[in-house]
Design goal:
By secondary structure, the chain is of the alpha/beta class. Helices cover 48% and strands 15% of the residues.
């Protein structure tokens, strides 16, 4: 019975988004409204000079739990990701907004940067996505900025890294890869995303 419930996918869509939700129609509709709010924020802000006219719909896939998401996870520490295959843009999430609104904003920022043709260093791309993950909808419109407690905790831990290690980390790619693999669980991209694209086509 639980397996049947986990396979009960529903979709909510408009001209800009196709939201596939594993937990049912209400989740899909709520998530669709959240992504519409995020698009409105970027349209009103004019930050990246991106026109959303004639853009293909973004496919959003929201799993019912982290356990269901696990087989499609690209990186050990990523509970969501943005990717594109040349035909569609995808945002894949372990859960959907509005509960995961910050994560949705982070991944949608990646889409905005990609769609706008911004070719940024990975650190700046991630930094911008993290900054815009703080966007909030209020009675006055949109607010952005503020602390990200999980990131502050990580930054506090990084203060313990020796200065000589930081120098070698910056200068040697192999040291950098080993550090990311050991400390952050980052071990490159895998193939599950391709399986997901096939399942949705």
């Amino acid at each position: 019975m639980a397996a049947q419930a986990a396979d009960r996918w529903t979709v909510a869509k408009d001209s800009r988004f196709e939201v596939y939700a594993q937990n049912g129609g209400e989740d899909a509709q709520r998530a669709l409204r959240s992504f519409e709010q995020l698009q409105a924020f970027f349209e009103q802000s004019h930050l990246f000079r991106l026109s959303f006219e004639n853009k293909r719909a973004v496919r959003v896939v929201g799993f019912g739990s982290r356990q269901e998401y696990e087989r499609y996870r690209l990186r050990q520490i990523a509970d969501a990701y943005y990717s594109a295959d040349g035909t569609h843009d995808y945002i894949v999430m372990a859960g959907l907004p509005p509960i995961e609104f910050g994560i949705a904003a982070h991944e949608y920022t990646h889409y905005v940067l990609h769609a706008g043709g911004w070719k940024l260093p990975a650190c700046l791309n991630e930094g911008l996505a993290e900054y815009f993950s703080t966007v909030r909808v209020s009675e006055r419109g949109f607010e952005v900025g503020g602390d990200l407690p999980a990131r502050s905790q990580v930054l506090g831990a990084f203060r313990l890294i020796r200065r000589d290690y930081r120098i070698s980390y910056a200068g040697h790619p192999e040291v950098r890869r080993n550090f990311l693999r050991r400390e952050l669980g980052v071990d490159g991209h895998a193939d599950p995303f391709r399986a997901l694209c096939v399942a949705l086509s």
